[in-house]
Amino acid sequence: MTVAPATPVASSHSTTAPRGRRRKVEGIYYFFLLPSLVLFTLAITVPAVIGIFFSFTNSIGFGDWEFVGLINYVAMFSDPAILQSYLFTFGFAAVTVVIVNAIAFLLAVGLTAQIKIKTGLRTVFVIPMVISGIIIAYVFNFLFSNSLPLLGQTLGIEWLSSSILANPDLAWVAIVIVTAWQAIPGTLLIYIAGLLSIPGDVYEAADIDGAGKAQQLFRITLPLVAGYVVINVILGFKNFLNAYDIIVGLTNGGPGTATRSIPMTIVTGFTGGDYAYQMANATMFFVIVVIVSVLQLRLTRGRNEI
Hints:
With 306 residues, the protein is mainly α.
């Protein structure tokens, strides 16, 4: 007896939309997007375009002005004040990002270990994250200007007997300490998320093979959280380039201009009659930040699957 071949049954899942066809977006989404888009354009995009336009003029912020071409941009490269601010800002950002990531990673390793009070410690360590930077700066300003010099005088430590905020060679150290104190919690949370994503079986296999804690840290933990390290380094460096409030509260750019960052230089120029000149500085700084942002996107592409 000949058996007729079975007729394939059409499945409800077999009918799929062509890959090239895009899903239709409901008009209501655009309705809710429009207010945010208008506000962003009026508050961010339009002022930025106007500022870039005036960077090619000799405007002081009001009154008459004339086009001067690239004179403002050319003058920047021979201005020692601006060059000093770029040198300080990039040096400060590089040092701070190393310190923040090193401390945050070690804290994350400890806070994900098998200790009883790790939940409470996590809460304590993230407190600086929710405090305003300017408040933190004023508190540490008092400590560096009064408490520490008094302690140095009591202990007979000469270099600690006076405020390091008044020392052109050491003021930047105070800024790094305070900035790191506030930035570590955010970095810490990202590292904790990365460490918790590592399967426990990996460490169990390493224990069976006789790997010590140091070997597990450098040969297992670090390679598996490399993506999170990249994210923290790029995000941290970009954020530290915009340092302003903590520097204002600690040194206000002093002593002299030793700790004046790029944002401080730009704001000071706006109030000092160098509007067009500092708009050129701001435009150049914007280009640098965009480059760092693009670098961040390229390096972190696909890291969400780690």
